[in-house]
Amino acid sequence: MRLSGLHQWLLAMSLAFCSGSSVAASPFNAGEQAWLANHPVVRYAIDPHGWPIEYLDDGEHKGLTQEYLQRIADITGIRFQLVQVQNRHQAMGLMLRGKLDLLTATSPRLIPPPFNKQILFSDPYFSGSTLLVTRADKPIVFDPAKLSGKTVAVEQGDPYEYFLREHYPEIKIVQTTTPLGALDAVADGDAYAAVGLDAILQSVIQRRYYGTLHIAGSVSEMPRLVSMAVSLQQPMLRDIINKSLGQLTAEDTDNILYNWLRTTDYGTPTVASIVRHYWIELSLLAVALCLLLLFAQHARSAKRAAQRSEAEKSMFLAMMSHEIRTPLNAVLASVELLRGSMLPPANGSWWLWPTPRQ
User: Which tops the pLDDT comparison, 341 or 238?
Assistant: First the structure.
């Protein structure tokens, strides 16, 4: 009985200790915990063209932002519900109308007014550089002012579009539906340069435009600090996200980046890109194939020559056999005739030999 009572006491103390530890370890105050209890579902949207930071794969959210949302969900217990949109501009409009609670990837410095005054931003969780991409024969560019009068392709609704229009009105903007469309415009000669995030452009150039497009420079005054945007009516959600991000360790972020890079689908490279990237290997393969074809042709010719020689031998032997057999038959016939005939004596007295009767 005493032993059973001791076990109950130890169990009660353990539960009390664990409960106290979990309460003490919770990063959220009472108000935030109450908000989480009253808002178990958070509606969010992503930029469907924000690959590889975020994108849709068969309607499923993929990319870096999905990894961070999953960690926040593990910490808070929030269930994030994806609302699919056509583009970034539509997502911003839905948030301003109260139909969205969260945008997963925004840049505070690049959001145009009045949007930047009507949303709240979380702490940055990812930073990248802004790159300028041109064709191979163009000079390097580190100052957007040098692009004055030139055509620059940028995704429609992208924060870069606002920044360039606001600070560099002399640049002619060509809007595209996707980041790939901006690169296509440069590759096809419809634009002088394209602007975008390094995490997006570098991998795409290597896969699809190797040898055609090159990074001409980076723009230091246009850094891309990626934050989450929250509706102005949900300041508590912004605080919860910030505290959740603050719970992540360096090991956690390393694992997030590893999973992101491991699972990102970079698409199928184009034939032209493969040829440019592996032209040495392809050239060696072509030479090897040519040699194989040459050897095969040589072997085929040798086989035909051998067959022709064999046929000529057979024909020669047949002809020689015929030529020899004909006189030999004549000789044999003569011998047979001689064997059946009476010959005169060998002493030359041929006149003594009886003559046949008439």
Answer: 238
CATH class of 30-269: alpha beta
Looking only at the bridges linking them, the beta strands covering 193-197 and 151-155 are parallel
Q: What is the pLDDT of residue 342?
A: 61
Question: With 70 as the cut, is the pLDDT of residue 354 above it?
Answer: no
Give the pLDDT confidence of 182-216 residue by residue, as tens digits: 999 999 999 999 998 887 788 788 878 888 899 99
Contact 115, 103 (CB under 8 A): no
For residue 137, which of 174, 186, 102, 178 has the smallest C-alpha distance? 186
CB 35 within 8 A of CB 76: no
For the chain, what are the domain ranges? 30-269, 271-319
137-146 pLDDT per residue, tens: 999 999 999 9
Neighbours of 165 (CB within 10 A): 13
- E-strand ranges in 54-192 read 54-57, 60-63, 79-82, 102-106, 119-121, 126-135, 151-155, 172-176
Q: Which residues contact 257 (CB under 8 A, 6 or more apart)?
A: 64
Report percent pLDDT > 70 for the chain: 83
Cβ–Cβ < 8 Å for 193, 153: yes
Instruction: Round to whole Å and give the CA distance between 124 and 109.
Output: 12
Residue 82: what are its φ and ψ, rounded to 5°?
-80, 130
- Whole-angstrom distance, CA of residue 246 vs CA of residue 102: 18
**pLDDT at position 122, please?**
95
The residue among 102, 107, 100 whose CA lies nearest residue 125 is 107
Nearest partner of 212 among 272, 141, 298, judged by Cα: 272
Task: Determine if the pTM surpasses 0.85.
Answer: no
